[in-house]
Specification:
Mean pLDDT: 85
Number of domains: 1
CATH class: Mainly Beta
Number of helices: 0
Helix content: under 10%
Radius of gyration: 13 Å
Distance between the termini: 34 Å
Strand content: 35-45%
Low-confidence stretches: 1-17
Structural class: mainly beta
CATH superfamily: Spermadhesin, CUB domain
Amino acid sequence: MYLPGIVMGNPCSNVLCDRLSVNNCGWWLYSTEGYITSPNYPQQYPNNMDCVWVISPGYEVIELEFLHVELEGSDCRFDGIQVYDGPSINQRQLGRLCGNQRSTFHSTGKTLTVRFTTDSSQTYQGFRAEYRST
């Protein structure tokens, strides 16, 4: 059975979190620091994924740093990561990443939302991002 996060492990093993999505990728994360990864990271992620992580440690602002990104396409038409300033994908988008782009994002409040989507063709290694309350 696949559990997102640590290779062959669960990101909830050392932090407070709840499962968010039905396809077993995406979580509510309550810890003041931690990380998220694409499914199967560092192996290739699956096709047709729609994963959402809501990072809500309850403190100040959140810094989210993408340390490694390897996705299909450089123009975000195929696979991509979107980061939103708040508790859902209906909030203001702070940015999006695709290809080999890396970036750091900062929330204006106590919650950030990350969405990872993939199409039905090529797959790559995916991503790893670390977050912390600041």
